Amino acid sequence: MDLNNLNNRENKSLTEEYIARIQFKPLATNKDLAYNKTWDRIQSEKLVAIGVSPVWKYISIAASLALLIVSTLSVIFYNPKTTEQIAYLEVSSVSGAKTKVVLPDSTMVWLNSNSRIRYPRQFTADSRNVKLEGEAMFNVSKNKHKPFIVSIDGMRVKVLGTKFNIHTSDDSDIIETTLLEGSVALFKESNYTGVADQILKPDQQALFNKKNGEMEVLNLEADSYASWVSGVFEFNKMTLQEITTSLQRAFDVKIDIQNESLKSVRLTAQFNRRETLDEILSILQISGHFKYEKVKGRINIKRE
After folding, report:
1. Which residues contact 127 (CB under 8 A, 6 or more apart)?
2. Please, which of 121, 135, 154, 289 could form a disulfide with 167 given CB 3.0 to 4.6 Å?
């Protein structure tokens, strides 16, 4: 007899005997409770939040704020030989703020409150074209082979390298171009020739009426129209009307002179960037013999 087979049969018999003697007690279960727990677990797994690194969270917030000011646009520029895609940037200055922009050619632009400029990420080979809404001070890098052109509603300003200020507003039909250095050529929107409608010299200002197409040129102290950028005010025998115009732009406030005779009063004064608007008006009212008051965000000036 094979001993190994005998041992195996005996072990199997003993195992079956032990199994037969073991009794498994059924577990008590609550089917409703088990169902609810399972369903709750499924629901919670659907609502698991995906964690975001705090660093990226703050970057996304900053990016969202930046988009309020800067947006990138793409357009297709066609020419007979090739199709070239040009990326445009649009920069806006929010209310009560001033924004400095450096263009691709190193031209410096200061945008006043609620103003906007649109320009290509890279200028073309033969020109530098930008579009403006509102007010901006330009300090254009010189390039006699590539003219710098600012398009405004109804007019174009063409320069090779100079410093000038442009002002437009939604509540006025006048486009105001003031030249500080160099020269600028002004073209009405309807002028497609190479001959400018007007060429300005330093300390001259062109007032173009979009409604009737007329253009008037004034002689003045152009530096005062840069005060909103520098914060330094030098009023040399300037009329109160001219002074308040400068202050309105610098401090983003509406100033109304309620007496016609006051508008032509000439004053001389100097202020630096540390003075507030209240301090400036308080000093001017002494020699100008007027008083001012603030009414619903506006400043009214009238005779004492």
Report:
1. 146, 147, 148, 149
2. 135
